[in-house]
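Ticket #4471: structure export looks truncated?
Reporter: QA, pipeline team
Priority: medium

Steps to reproduce: submit the single chain below to the structure queue and open the exported record.
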Amino acid sequence: MAISAGVVILLLGAVYAAAYVMAGDTLARDARVAGIELGGMTKDEARATLEQELPPLTDAPVTVDTGAGDPHTLEPGEAGLRVDIDKTLQRVSGGSANPVDLARALFGGADVAPVVDIDRDQLESALGTIAEESDVQRADGTVGFSEGEVVVEDPVIGRTLQVGEAADLVEDRYTTTVETATPDESAVEVPVEETPPEIDQAEIDRAVSEVAEPAMSGSITVTAGDSTTEVTPEILSQALSMSANEGTLELAMDSEALIEASSTQLDELGEPPEDAPITISGGEPTVGSGSTGLAVQPEAYATEVQQVLTATGDARAVTLEQQEVQPDLTKAEAQDLGVTEVVSEYTTEFPHAEYRNVNIGRAAELMQNTLVQPGETFSLNDTVGERTEANGFTSGTIISEGQFTEALGGGVSQVATTAYNAGFFAGLKDVEHQPHSFYIDRYPEGREATVAWPYLDMAFQNDTDYGVLVDTSFSESSPGSSGSITVRLWSTKHRDVETSTSDRSAITDYEQVTESGEDCVPQQGTNGFDVTVNRVIRENGSVIADEDIHTTYNPAAAITCQ
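Actual output as written to the record:
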């Protein structure tokens, strides 16, 4: 029996050796992965076969539907979805010295499902990118007002992709597709959490129909005494808003904004008071009486308008009481200002040009009888206004970038220089003045000013305890004779001014320039130089200011036009 057993063992060994020689390094005869035939192949051959034939199954894009109507696509390789070929081949029978594998290699194998390898972090990251594109921020609906119209922004339902649950579904779909070798081209419907807005469409519709549209349905008629005005939807819309409160839109009105937008309407609901005027009559200042006015209280106006905002038809009307309003300056106050005598006077002359007659005369007219109360500032730009044809000005010569050119209001700098000197010799505080870029010989050196709307001004402050009245006189030029402009300041004399002017220094010669073209304006050359003007102001004998005013004039080229 012992010999027989040995023989058996030898025979089995011989059979095993023969089997290993025949099939030891190949896969089972009927081995398959996802239906791909691998029988009789070595593992290297099988790996190459799977790498070539699996991709149509394993790399097919996965469609993700968030329910927003625009499906998204996941590329498996970019989303951490892949097949582990090495682990898959470990499941396939054959290709080893194991007797069972040898037997299967000789007599047959089975169809093996691919081993799915999923990188969960990578999958959720890919779905997170989809979430960034598909998620919708919840937004409440709003109702507003603009230019007399109701403006509505519809509410938005918030939508948030549930990344974790979506990853489970995509993983299941991919695994099932690969393991069953059954492609599924339908979209994976992933869960999305919806967050309703606090102010929904129903509330928007209610607020519009019950509040906003009535508020814009027409003007509100306001009556005060014999005066009537209309508060239009355009005005109301500047002060109205609607805000959310526990799911409801409520109407609010900004009273200050309504008052600011209703300046014209408030003026129409009364009569403005008139300050007591101080004018020059017969060469002497005369104080007039002025008058009281009538006005409504702006706060009462806003309150009453608010009461009928959502009313319609004839109910959109309110009545207010008028109150007497005192002028800012009564006759007694005007008399106390001490405007009794000329405290300074200055005159400049100008060569003939019709535009100078127009512009200088118009500026003098607009400045006449301007009262500058203690602490106030006289501004030529504010007093004269923009130099336009509608304001009575015409085109004339101005200096721009060192050369003469044409513009509306040319010549008004003559008035600025004259007024500057009047304020200078009255001892008033210089607030702003800008000399011309080059010297013009009809003006005093270092004591002249140019103006340009709206960025260059000539201004002085009445830093005294008395009123200052501006008085102008104008004489037109004519061919062969000069015109003149005089500015007198009336007040109470209590300041004395001493002034001196230095010699010229840092003199710079001008250049000779030849130009051509229709816009060329010939001009004489002027040297550049520096000059310093000193002003000492005494009040009741005591020095209150000792000022040095330094001016640098640029040279102006002598221009010849071809």
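Status: closed, not a bug. The export was complete when the record was re-opened. Leaving a note from the reviewer for reference: The first helix runs from residue 2 to 23.
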